[in-house]
Design brief:
Blueprint (H helix, E strand, L loop, with lengths): L25 H27 L3 E2 L5 E2 L11 E6 L5 E6 L4 H9 L5 E8 L11 E10 L3 H15 L3 E4 L2 E4 L4 E4 H9 L10 H8 L9 H13 L9 E7 L15 E9 L2 E8 L4 H18 L9 H9 L3 E7 H9 L11
Parallel strand pairs: 1-5, 9-10
Antiparallel strand pairs: 2-4, 3-4, 5-6, 6-13, 7-8, 10-11, 11-12, 12-13
Length: 347
């Protein structure tokens, strides 16, 4: 589920030269200069953080045969023309995850990457169709270790108190709350009891089920409307132990198979990062992907690509590890108190 952008209520002044509408126009660039300079410092501080911890920075291809298997993401299509004239359909990746896990399976870890990624149909004050993802993976790490490292990164690259979009967050403390606890606290719902049953979840939450709305659609509607407004306010929030159907690349919880070892991080009310203890069972990964592909094809039949068999093989060879993806542009927004993601993009 994605927030949609609001239309700008101000009409353009057609009497002004067209150049004033360009992001690189001197006046517009000058207005963003402070945000962009803070972004530059943030990038260098981020690299220093990971290098001090023994990480290797990697670069992986952006144009790939399979951009990801997320149900709700739409990819950009492209094409490679070989020297013999043959053509291969490719996609701009929605995350470097598949490629980075292949490197992990080959023994490259721990690794990080500041990667450009593409997600078609995105656009709001906190979403862009092309943006920068900070992604990193640690071998022999569990969810607690990865959450601790994510908070350590924030404290290393941000001041002790940050403000963004009118919300001030202090980094000295951290709230940890499970998805089940959050739904119980803010909606009075046992969300795990309804997994896969949209009608039950709607009845429990006392909302009307929309036509064609599946359980995960309703989950994210409730999450967006009733849970997220409480997260990452006074302190960062780590919301943990997600329902297993919403974590296709994560290991199940060792004590309750209805949950997965997934967490999300919120700061200044903004969803900032998403982390997993990585699944290492190739057969289960294939089954999850097939289920997700079926759902995606039902929703968006023209977006299709072959299953990444190399990735499935890499899953079988993965060492125990955990990984996280963080929206670097959103981190730059928080670091500079920028109101919109476009304020921290050079163009």
């Amino acid at each position: 589920m994605r927030r949609m952008s609001r239309q700008d209520p101000h009409q353009p002044d057609l009497t002004q030269p067209a150049i004033t509408t360009m992001a690189w126009a001197p006046d517009r660039l000058a207005a963003r200069r402070g945000y962009l300079q803070r972004r530059d410092l943030l990038r260098e501080a981020t690299r220093a953080f990971f290098r001090a911890r023994g990480y290797c920075e990697v670069e992986t291809p952006y144009a790939v045969t399979a951009p990801g298997e997320e149900v709700f993401l739409s990819a950009f299509a492209t094409e490679r023309v070989a020297t013999d004239g043959s053509r291969t359909k490719l996609w701009l990746h929605t995350s470097p995850e598949f490629a980075m896990k292949k490197l992990l399976a080959g023994g490259a870890g721990p690794i990080f990457q500041l990667a450009r990624v593409w997600r078609n149909g995105e656009g709001s004050d906190t979403h862009a169709a092309e943006f920068t993802m900070l992604e990193w993976y640690r071998t022999e790490a569990d969810m607690d270790a990865l959450m601790d490292e994510a908070i350590s990164l924030l404290r290393a690259v941000l001041p002790p108190e940050v403000t963004c979009r009118g919300v001030t967050t202090r980094l000295d403390q951290v709230e940890r709350i499970s998805v089940a606890e959050a739904f119980s606290r803010y909606l009075g719902v046992d969300v795990l009891a309804s997994i896969g049953d949209a009608a039950q979840l709607a009845a429990d939450a006392k909302v009307k089920l929309r036509t064609g709305e599946a359980w995960d659609d309703l989950f994210f509607r409730l999450m967006l409307g009733s849970i997220e407004p409480h997260l990452g306010r006074a302190h960062p929030s780590l919301i943990t132990d997600w329902p297993a159907p919403l974590a296709a690349l994560a290991q199940r919880h060792p004590h309750d198979g209805r949950m997965a070892q997934r967490f999300e991080l919120y700061v200044c009310g903004i969803e900032l990062a998403n982390g997993f203890v990585e699944l290492t069972d190739a057969n289960e990964q294939r089954a999850r992907f097939i289920a997700d592909r079926t759902r995606r094809h039902q929703m968006n039949g023209h977006d299709d690509w072959p299953l990444d068999e190399e990735f499935i093989k890499a899953v079988a060879d993965l060492p125990p590890c955990a990984g996280i993806a963080m929206g670097f542009d959103r981190l730059a927004m928080i670091a500079s108190d920028a109101p919109r993601i476009t304020d921290v993009l050079w163009l």
